[in-house]
Structures are given as C-alpha cells and as structure tokens.
Amino acid sequence: MSAAIERPALIVADRWRDYQLLECGDGLKQERWGAYTLVRPDPQIIWPRHGAKPGAPNGPAAWPNWDGFYHRSEQGGGKWEFRRALPDHWKIAYESLGLTFRIHPTNFKHTGLFPEQAVNWEWFSAKIKTARAAGRPVSVLNLFGYTGAATCAAAKAGASVVHVDAAEGMVKWCKENAALSGLADAPIRYLVDDCLKFARREQKRGRKYDAIIMDPPTYGRGSTGEMWKLEEHLWELLTECRALLSDQPLFFLINAYTARLSPTVVANLLAELMHGRGGKITAGEVGLPIQRDGKVLPCGIYGRWET
Description:
The chain is an alpha/beta fold. About 25% of the residues lie in helices and about 30% in strands. Strands 1, 2, 10, 11, 12, 13, 16, 17 and 18 form a nine-stranded mixed beta sheet that branches. Strands 3-4-5-6-7 form a five-stranded mixed beta sheet, with no helix packed on it. The protein has a two-stranded antiparallel ribbon with strand order 8-9. α1 (about 120-135) packs parallel to α2 and α4 (about 195-205) runs parallel beside α5.
C-alpha cells in the first residue's frame, strides 16, 4: 500500500509569546527574543523594507530599537555589535508546550533555537500524547538533534528519546534545555556521535524506534571527522533508519534548511522510503509571521510521514 501524498503546504509558527519576528527587508530580519531585540541577515529576504530610503545604507542606523546587530563578513562568518551589555545567555519559553530554552547569540549568527520548528513540535507532541493516552510507550530517535528543542518537546509529551549530534557542545546545550523545561530526569539519552554510524550500530543492537526526527545539514562532519554531504548521504541514512522503525511506527519527520531540496523531493523520498506501509505524507515549508506587515518568512522545508 502506498502512502497518500498531500500537496506541499506552508505551515506557520504563530503561537509564540516570547518570540516575535518584528520586521523584514533588504536582507535583514529584526526579532524579539524575550527581553532583547536582535537584527540578523537572512538570504530569503530579498524584498525591500518598509520606509527605507532607496539607496540608503542598510546598516545599524537604519534599524531602530535593537540590542544586537549581526554584521556578516565578506570573508565568511561575522560578528555581533551590541548597543548595551547583554547577558551571555537568557531564557525564553514556549508556553503552549511548557518548554523553556537557553538563548545565546553565537559567532555564526544563530541563537541556539529555530522558532519556526514550533509547528512541528506541536504536531508530533499531539501524536505522542494520543499514543501515550492509549497506553502505548513511544520511543523517538532525534538525529542531528542540535540544541534539542525537538528532543525536549517529544520528552515533554511522554516519549523516551535518544538525542544524537556530532557536536559535543550542542548535546550539552540540549541537556541544559531539558533541565530548564523540567526534564532533567526524563528518559533522554544524550549521545555525541556520527548519525549514520550510530544508525548502523543500532541495527546491530536490534534497537527499534516508534518515531524518527532528523534535521540533516547540507554539509557537516561527524564526531571523528567524517564528511557529510546531503545529496550523497541522505538516502543512505534514510534506508538505515527505515530498518530501525518498529512494527507500528507513529511518524517520520525530515527537516531541511538547504535550497538544494524542495518539499516535493522530500515527499518523494518519504514515499519511496515508506512504500508498502500506507499512512500519509505531507510536505511543505515552515514559516514565521512578520508582525510589521503580515507577510510570512519561509524558514525551511519539512516532510512528514504518519500513520
């Protein structure tokens, strides 16, 4: 039985209180992260900013009321400029699911959280809670888990979670987010490992999971220097993960932030991967509402298979 495939859809993370995407334009976005406002570059924002003077410099002076402004370097990377002394890190909450996260502006412009993913947290949390209410235990594997927002959401919903990332610092950050969210004693395993090698070892150990979440990068390196390239290794990883699914899996979620994949490609991958299992496949974009004018900023793509 083939899975039913729905047309690509845009889903918007619009339930935040501690986070707001205030304004976008001319390659920059202004965001409120709790008590602090940051301006960061975004390659998707190629439309003009409201009220900006044509040809005027689009630097810090053009954006009022910011606490941190990220300057991108032509040589790669960049650095932050702060108008006032900000704490090294602070907390914001996603009240809908009872989660709290540590925010820290990094040298690579990121803050440790992708708020648009809240729509996926909501989706799989509901599925986990339904299964748990029916008396079913749920085990989740989160690959390329980063700072663990999805891990925390799954654990909060009642699942046991294995969190895998090649960067030791990200796994430590996940532990901190779990503690902040009241999950210090939750059934979460934290592993610093290469995701593909880990999946192969789990097969040999006979481990099975009811759900898999992955957020593969375009490029990356494993914990011992292994090179990851999305186009070359994604299908290989997916097939290894298929062997880890339990007899009655709940869902399989793929997130991606690369322009090299379209939602339709992700849907096709899932259709091929889950052929014969039935279920439903949905793919599309995740986005954030822009407070200034009601537009939506696209922030990546997703593909979901579910029963």
